[in-house]
Amino acid sequence: MEIAECITSEQVEAAWPVIAQLRQGIAQSTLEQRLASARPEGYRLFAALQDGRVVGAIGFRLLHDLASGRSLYIDDLVVDEGERGRDIGRALMTFAEEAATGAGCEAIRLTSAMFREGAHAFYERLGFARPGYVFKKELVPPSSA
Hints:
Blueprint: E1 2-5, H1 9-22, H2 28-38, E2 44-50, E3 53-65, E4 69-79, H3 88-102, E5 107-110, H4 117-125
Parallel strand pairs: 4-5
Antiparallel strand pairs: 1-2, 2-3, 3-4
C-alpha cells in the first residue's frame, strides 16, 4: 500500500468516492471549494492506494494553541467500506503520527461524531483518550450586499 498526497484535481477526483462515504451530503464541487480554502491554512489530504486504487483517505493540519501546544489535527479519516478491517486505517493513522512526530508535535487530536462508536473503539485501540466534548453552533453567513 502507498500513501500519497492528493494535490491535483485528478487525485482529488480519484479519492472522492471514498471521501464521500465519510462526508455524505457534501457535493464533490463543495469538497473541491473547501479544499481550495483549507489548503492555504495548512490542510493536507492524502490517499491510501492499493494497486493504484484509492482505498482510504486522511486529511490533517498542524495547529498551535494553548490547550495542546503544537499538535496535528485530523479532520478526515475514512477507509472504503469494502476494505475495512485490513489495517488501512491503522496505516493512515501511523502515517499521521509519523508526520506529527516529524513536525515536533506534542499531540494528535481529532473529533468523531457521537454515533461513530466503531471509530471510537478504533481510536481507543490506538491509544487515544476522550478528554472532553466538542460543541458546535451552526451560523448563517451574512448576505453579501
